[in-house]
Amino acid sequence: MSQEGNSSPAWLEELQLSDVLTSDAVRSLHATIEQEWDFLRRSACQTAAGRALWSHAVHDPIAAVLAGESYLRSLYEKMRQDKLNNAQEISGVILAVRTLWFDSRLEAAIDSFVTRPAQVVLLGAGMDARAYRLNCLKESIVFEVDFPELLQVKASLLKEVMVSSKEHQISMRAKSLIRVAADLREGDWIEKLQKSGYLPERQTVWVLEGILYYLPHLLAMQVLEAIAAGCTSTHSVLLADFMNKSSVSLSDSTFQFYSDWPDHLLSSMGYGQVKLSQIGDPDAHFGLLSDSQNLFHKLRRLPRSMEIDPDDGTPCRRLYLVEASN
Ligand SMILES: C[S@@+](CC[C@H](N)C(=O)[O-])C[C@H]1O[C@@H](n2cnc3c(N)ncnc32)[C@H](O)[C@@H]1O
User: Fold this and answer.
1) Tell me: the pLDDT tens digits for 46-83?
2) How far is the CA of 45 from the centre of ligand 1 (A)?
3) Which end of the chain is more exposed for a tag (fewer CB within 10 A), N or C?
4) How many whole angstroms from 39 Cα to the centroid of ligand 1?
5) Which domains, from first to last, does the chain contain?
6) Nearest atom (ligand 1) to Cα of 219
7) What is the value of pTM for the model shown?
């Protein structure tokens, strides 16, 4: 992204923190997160910080409160450094594009359904606020699946936003929101979903955003297979992002599952229609990648089978955005 490009945040001069974000109640909830949560759970706040700081592209007015001050400051500092260094990509741009891609594909999937209400399952929902920000969910039942303590703190943070901030005017957009406390490692999450009201025969959009690569390989495959098995009888859509092998191979990487060919993988699981996009493709661009020298444009020009960029010897780290339906 060039310095002059219109896709960099205009506000990078100064970080603004709202009153609710700096209130004692919100600070105390975030202190708990920092002291007690592991990196898996805390990754939810990092993601929310990305949405908050890319607010010129992503409309998520509660993301900042859900992210918390320290994650906002840390990402803000990275973005500021990128800007000062004239970096071609500003930190967080992948998150912004990814969020916008999931938003647009989710809306299209719901529009394609003939019956109402639709179900939307956010697996590893983290600090996702779609139920509060997307009008397209007005006839949908949204299920948020994540660890119990994460869902509890999230509910408390949302309560603080609602009571203390008139300016935010936050209200539920979804028809209903059901929080399902479950650890995907325990294998009973579909059962828990069903006990919470999820109906396998109802049209469903599965949203797996920023979750699969945090899981061990076997578990990620089990999750995908469980979803695919339930999608055979009714029209459902799976939206998921996948890292390729080079993306998880850094020595200090916390990422585990990867797929170089997630489109083939999902086809082999029984999905009849699979569409794969890369960051920077026409449907995964959103005007945020205007510099033609951008890393993502370079990657898109190289064959997907290529693991190393022949020009500079760097690994081809890719994030695939995949939509699958039956
Ligand atoms: C990077 S965050 C992404 C959150 C959200 N989907 C988003 O895009 O903002 C990953 C989320 O997956 C959740 N997660 C990771 N492993 C999990 C597991 N075994 N069971 C339930 N949730 C899990 C974490 O708690 C976290 O909220």
Assistant:
1) 999 999 999 999 999 999 999 999 999 999 999 999 98
2) 10
3) C
4) 10
5) 93-325 (3.40.50.150)
6) 19
7) 0.94
Pairing of strands 118-123, 204-208: parallel
pLDDT digits (tens, 9 = 90+) for 106-142: 999 999 998 889 999 999 999 999 999 999 999 999 9
Query: Cβ contacts of residue 158 below 8 Å, gap of 6+?
Result: 62, 66, 132, 170
Please name the residue that has the structure tokens 């007015």: 61
Ligand 1 atom with the shortest distance to the CA of 44:
2
| 50 CB within 6 A, ligand 1 | no
Amino acid at 146: D
- Are 291 and 309 in contact, with CB atoms under 8 Å apart? no
State which of 147, 207, 241, 255 you would mutate to test the pocket of ligand 1, scoring each by most atoms of that ligand within 8 A of its C-beta: 147
Instruction: Give residue 125 CA to ligand 1 midpoint distance, Å.
Output: 6
Length of the chain measured in residues = 326
Is 80 exceeded by the pLDDT of residue 187? yes
Rounded to whole angstroms, the Cα distance separating 314 from 292 reads 19
Asked whether 288 and 57 are in contact (CB, 8 A), the reply is yes
Which atom of ligand 1 is least distant from the CA of 51? 9
Take residue 113 and report the two structure tokens written for it.
């359904």
